[in-house]
Amino acid sequence: MDSRKIALVTGGSRGLGRDMAVNLAKKGLDVVITYNSNSEAAQRTLELIGTEGAQGIALQLDARNSTAFEAFKTNLVAELNKQWNRSKIDYLVNNAGFGHEGSVFDTSEEAFDDLMNVHFKGVYFLTQKLLGAMNDGGGIVNISSGLARFSFPGYSAYAAMKGAVEVYTRYLAKELGTRKIKANTVAPGAINTDFNKDRFEAAPQVVEIIASLTALGRVGEAEDIGSVVAFLCTDDAAWINGQRIEASGGMFV
Questions:
Q1: Which active-site residues does the annotation give?
Q2: Count of structural domains, the chain
């Protein structure tokens, strides 16, 4: 049986998720990615995974819809058996998400619920559902945000969900310890990806401001994050558990 380990990255079709998937492949892992609607982008990610000598598959998943998680698990197990003759993954990276900008005064309940469903409820219950399809000794990496530590006006709801994920991750680390499954959080700072594209293009001065607030003097790129996530999915990180690792270049240090 192939001894290569398998990682699942939600939202792995583009942006940070794509870079995570490619870096996992570079570390010698095979990768399952999920995408919501952009199957062409997912296929491009699979091609990049292949160039690193790894195998990959892409599965559709709406991370906001927890009622679909049981069917997703069934599909995942079937595809794992088909591709690898295995029924379990080793690592789960909860990355899927989207941004929202709105002050405390004008964030709607609908927007709040949408954020919660993908960034917290989705993370909580997808993890719960997939624990039975994870090997002992693996790991979980949840993606948070620098905004859970420092505050920018307009991101209260998004940041609150990420703060909840950080607390949840510590509980995962505690409760999954008997299975030797590690759980950690990676918190990116401001990153130049699709996530922030519209904001950066509409207000280029924002990039300069962020760079000035960052010790390393620039805005982050996707490749600044993927390698950190991949590291946590290797034996080199076997003794890192229950931790929040911020990859922000030193914002507000």
A1: 158
A2: 1
- Between the CA of residue 111 and those of 100, 121, 209, what are the distances in Å? 8, 14, 27
Long-range contacts of 174-182 (CB under 8 A, 24+ apart): 174/242, 176/131, 176/140, 177/241, 179/136, 179/137, 180/136, 180/137, 181/134, 181/136, 181/137, 181/138, 181/139, 181/140, 182/138, 182/139, 182/140, 182/232, 182/237, 182/238, 182/240, 182/241, 182/242
Q: Could you tell me if residue 201 is inside a domain?
A: no
150-201, pLDDT tens digit by residue? Answer: 988 889 999 999 999 999 999 999 999 999 999 999 999 988 876 656 666 6
Q: Model-level pTM greater than 0.85?
A: yes
Domain interval for residue 44? 6-193+222-244
What tens digit of pLDDT does each residue of 95-143 get? 999 888 889 999 999 999 999 999 999 999 999 999 999 999 999 999 9
